[in-house]
Amino acid sequence: MAQAGTTHPGPCQMMRTCEHMAAPVPNPQFVLRGARSAVHALHFCHGAQGHPLLLSGSLRGLVHVWSLQTRRPLAALDGHGGQCVTWLHTLPQGPQLLSQGRDLQLCVWDLAEGRNAVVDAVHLESVGFCRASVLAEGPQRWMLAVPGRGSDEVQVLELPSKTSVSCLKPEAGARLGMPMCLQLWQAESSPRPLLLAGYEDGSLALWDVSARKVCSRVACHSEPVMALALDPRRARGVSGSAEKVLAVWSLEGQQALQVRGTHELINPGIADLKIRPDSKILATAGWDHRVRVFQWRTMKPLAMLAFHSATVHCVAFNTTGLLAAGSGDQRISVWSLYPPT
Amino acid sequence: MDPVASAVRLAVQEAVHILSSSEDGGHIISTLQSLRRYLGETETQAPPEEQEEFSRTHFSTILRCLVGKLSPDWLDLLPDGQLEELWASFFLEGPADQAFLVLMESIEGAASPSFRLMKMARLLARFLSAGRMAAVMEGQCGQQAGPASRLLQETLLTRVVGLPDHLGNRLQRETLAAFFPQNYFPLLGEEVLRVLQAVVDSLRGGLDCSVSFLSQVLGKACVHGRQKEILGVLVPRLTVLTQGNCLWQRVCWRLVECVPDRAMEAVLKGLVEAAPGPEVLSRLLGNLVTKSKKAQFVMTQKLLFLQYSCSMPMLQSLLGYLAMDSQRRPLLVQALKELLETWGSSSAIRHTPLEQQRYVSKALLICLTHLGEAELRASRDELLASLMEGVKSRLDSSLPPVRRLGMIVAEVASARLHPEGPPLKFQYEEDELTREMLALAVPWPAADGPSEAGPPVAPVSGESPDQETVDSGGPQAGWEGSDSELDSDDELVPYDMSGDGEQRGSKTPAYVRDCLEALTASEDWERWEAALRALEGLVLKSPAATREVSLELAKVLLHLEEKTAVAGFERLRQRALVAVTVTDPARVAEYLAVQFYALNYSLRQRMDILDVLALAAQELSRPGRLGRAAQRGSPGPGSQPSGAAVPAWKAVVEERVRCKTRRFCKQGSTGRAAAAGPNEFNAVAGYFFFPLLQRFDRPVVTFDLLGDDQLVLGRLAHTLGALMYLAVNTAVAVPMGKALLEFVWALRFHGDAYVRRGLLSAVSSVLLSVPAEWLLADLLDELLEARSWLADVAEQDADEDCRLLAVKALLLLEKLRDRLLPLSSP
Questions:
Q1: What is the pLDDT, as a whole number, of residue A13?
Q2: Does the ipTM exceed 0.85?
Q3: Is the CB of A127 inside 8 Å of chain B's CB atoms?
Q4: Which of A239, A263, A287 is the last residue of a domain?
Q5: Domain that residue A192 falls in
Q6: Shortest CB distance from A11 goes to which of B482, B483, B489?
Q7: A288: which chain B residues are within 8 Å (Cβ-Cβ)?
Q8: CB distance A45 to A92 below 8 Å
Q9: Residue A206 — φ and ψ, nearest 5°?
Q10: Where do the WD repeats lie (chain A) (predicted)?
């Protein structure tokens, strides 16, 4: 990992600094207040007339829909009985929203034409903090990975039929512990969907979903893996855990996981991490109240955003380059850093 | 009757007669010309016997006669000043000593502003510029000293050295530049050099000479305080002349040896000052210290122990001189022993000024650098004994500079005396003095030192630019390489990350009680530290909650030990204790003051108590504290950090109000009065003050204020003074002042300077804080007693700060009287 002390100006239009003095950290572009409880999930999406929206899930079980134009909440969806909403995702066909809560429900919402009603729900078997992952298999067919009934299992379902595709259980004696984070993924070249799962023991496993077997496993951390993010184009990913280290790994030949390097952090604990869709920068949500931004290619630290006064639980990017961070201090900060060219 | 003598006498008598009666210019000229024959300057010289007879017996008569004739009319008898020229030639060409004496005599005898006086003064100036002074002195070098000539020498000596004074007295404002001491004494120096040159020449020629008159001149000039002027000329020249020339060196040694005892100190001090280094001093003085008792006393006692005015280069020269010759080295060892003894004597530490203690310490360090291993080993036990004694008494002192001197000297001296043992190491702050002293302690390089050290320096300095360019070029190339490898086209520029750091406060307690619990019971050191850091803020934010547990909190904080290396632990603890005391002053202050005399505390804790009490009193008595405290207390725990926002809107509102309001009173709008409020210290000053005074004279097993723990006593005196000062404008100030003056009275002759300083500042606080009317009504006797004591201290105390403080207190007393006098007079 290159950690440059001094930088040389490149042909970057963001050059706002002189060569020797780094610019001060910018302020958030705006801050959304009114979630009334800690923010645990964030997701950018497009509303009806293409208006950009931000969805946030709170500790008290509400999902807020924020307009990024008026910067006001448009709606608050209450579907999880006051239990924490841990994961939000929209499906590309129609404004359909998936929300995972700790009430053991994964709700499917219809947001089209101003509606906000639960149209379907999947009953979950595990009450942990593991976030689900979804993969579009074809038009109107999605694959969903959620923690399964057994404490170390991962259940893969097909939506909207809710039929179980497979149940991924590590072989006896592997002692991986609970799955902590999931990422479904299908390479363009291969028809077989793959699942990356981070486990409680700090290891990362690559599952072949249809064969129900582990293709590769690597121990990246000594603490539970709290979050992982994958850059499919480079076949590389990064994971964070409860310790002070980010691990960068790659998928050699789509099959073998290999740790490429680690990046030391100042304070321990990563709650979430995301790579921007254009694969330029990586953002981490830290237990130390700070959001850190890295250049994804080199893992060079770019910025430390010390705005929040409590643990940052989640970060999200949208396609225009906005970065949102939700924190235990009930605020959502929205930043515009290094806008994509 | 000798025929030669009678012939000369006849001629002289006739000439005198003509000179005194004749008005004819030509006659006078021819008479003078005929007299000049005897001076031996004309073609027709008189026989040598006659010349000698003339100059021995008749020359001064003629000169006096010439002086007597001097008047404008007489000089105008011949045109073009011929007569004056001839007249002057007698003074400039005849025997110099007589001419000089007659000149001085006539100047002294002339009426104060007069034609004759000015003429004579100008002539004397010519005499000096013609270099005749050398002739005057040279004349005294060859002669054997008989009683008559000794009298002459005495007279000459007074005149030669006192010339600027005599002339200055006579001529007042008209005096000529040549007679200013700053011009005359360098000239005298030059003349002395010329005489010395002549002496050296005649010694080469096998003639015997004496330099004792020169020594006397030198000595007297130095006694008159003209060392700088005369030696400033002599020493540089002698430095050059004595280099590798034995004859000059011997003349020089003799010159200093013959200086009379009473002038020896002045001469030696001047020489030490003027000599550029020990080598030169050694060349100029030779082994003077072993030959002359007086010189030895001056060099080894007076300049080291009785005076402390020498600069460091002087001290270096002096001690270096003692070290340069094997005959003198025993003196250096002796000096070191005595220095160490003085340095370590507890009485000297207490009674000599700090400046002198520094001087002795520095001399000690220089001595150590000059002495070799063997010499030190020979008297090691003796030296170590007095060193240890001194270190002990110095570390006991309550004045930090004295302690620091002890530490520095002990470190250096023990390293020299006991090189094989483990090095002694003290903790002290570096400052100018310590650096200076440690630089003195670096041993002088051996003779071949510089040449050895020289060559390696040059290549390094020559090389360094190359190295630098290599260094700066290397990494740059490295970065570029790595950049190109990682396609640097979209390099992103990082923001300032300097604010990044380890996060704290995840475990910060939110309530005072939590802090208390964390500080007492917690084994979790992060939480313990967080609690310590948060405590002051919490206490100030929630006074009510603090009051419930204030005593426990104070107790815990007082006993708190630094278990982990928390940065700024002392300060955090102190701030927290002050906050607690301010929040619940009556109970906590009383508790702390009582604990001050309790059994099981360290001196550190006791001094902490004093500091906390003083700081808390200061905080309580600060005007406008209430308003600020209320403001600080208002934001609830959940509110956002909006500290910057509030003043902004406030400013906007005030600006608007100001625009829309018309004020009729001009002054009112411009300045806002400082917020007035009652002195909160008023109600509780007694709790702070009186318990501290109660038991200072009752020692307990671990704590004896009047014995060893004088440092704490000094702190106590200072703290009481501060409390008294802060109690200004309170009702309790009068009894406090009375009690404090009694305390001061009991301790006024304390031996420790730090304690005395505290007492003096306490007296000043009483004078400042207690209203004048009450001072006169209730404390009159005490004040009168204090006044005489203050006057004594101001004059006689060894410590400079004490004298200063006493003078300040006296001034306050004066002011008090001045203010009361107009009140009582009508």
A1: 40
A2: no
A3: no
A4: A263
A5: 30-263
A6: B489
A7: 503, 506
A8: no
A9: -110, 115
A10: 218-259, 305-341
